[in-house]
Amino acid sequence: MRSLIANELKVASAVIAADEAEPEEVVGEVGEVLLEAVAHRVEEEVEGLEDLLVTKNLTPGEAVYGEKRISVQTTAENNAGAVNGEAAPATQTEYRVWNPFRSKLAAGILGGMEEIYMRPGSKVLYLGAASGTSVSHVADIVGPTGTVYAVEFSHRSGRDLVNMATHRTNVIPIVEDARHPLKYRMLVGMVDCIFADVAQPDQARIVGLNAHLFLKQGGGVVISIKANCIDSTSPAEQVFAREVQKLREERIKPKEQLTLEPFERDHAMVCGVYQRSAA
């Protein structure tokens, strides 16, 4: 396996790297997109595998849903921790492969999203957490100093979410209806970002209700829109346009929109910034 370290990146078809030892900006370029110490691509020289999107495993040695794990050894040669001319010992970092066919957020990143408003240390409100597969990768992204408030309505999926959170202590599972954020207002503090994948006709309203209660001024909103769940009789493009207008009415200023093909059909990802005042 071959890993490209951030300061050696030369943009090929898709290339990211992986030494996150220090919070100095680790930036890899994929097309015109900058991913800042959030998600990475690792090139693996294994037949049948192309470049992989991965997150640094918060709990090394453990998988969440049977995903592939990759260990990258940082040799003394490229280890920045050398002291007095002596090479520092090699270290090993474990990454978890993030499958874009199982995660809308991963599909959006690979599709070219420029900003997901999540960083190490961020506080994220995740609406539509399901069993926690994507949530676990967001937990990897925000790291031990961040927090993911994961809201899921289904009790069956909620059990899996709670089980996952027992190993990732930066995840706070909330089995509740995201339409009623007042029910979990005592559990959730102000957040830097809301990610929503609730696939409901009133999804924009649900996001707005939660943003008005929990999202900081200038906070980020990332919403996955499934056209068929909102209006199965209209073309997807019209559905997306109407949803974007609804977000504006909730004081969320759209910044970016892209489709999730080839990973998801008739899906779009919309990113925006929340303004608390109507101005």
From TrEMBL:
Which ranges does the record mark as transmembrane?
A: none
Gene Ontology molecular function, alphabetical: histone H2AQ104 methyltransferase activity; RNA binding; rRNA methyltransferase activity
Record-linked InterPro entries: Fibrillarin, SAM-dependent_MTases_sf
- List GO BP terms, alphabetically: box C/D sno(s)RNA 3'-end processing
Any Pfam family:
Fibrillarin
Q: Provide the protein's localization.
A: Nucleus, Nucleolus
Q: Which UniProt keywords apply?
A: Methyltransferase, Nucleus, Ribonucleoprotein, RNA-binding, rRNA processing, S-adenosyl-L-methionine, Transferase
Output the superkingdom of the source species.
Eukaryota
Give the family, as the similarity comment puts it.
Belongs to the methyltransferase superfamily. Fibrillarin family.
* HAMAP family named among the record's database cross-references: RNA_methyltransf_FlpA (MF_00351)
This chain's protein is named rRNA 2'-O-methyltransferase fibrillarin
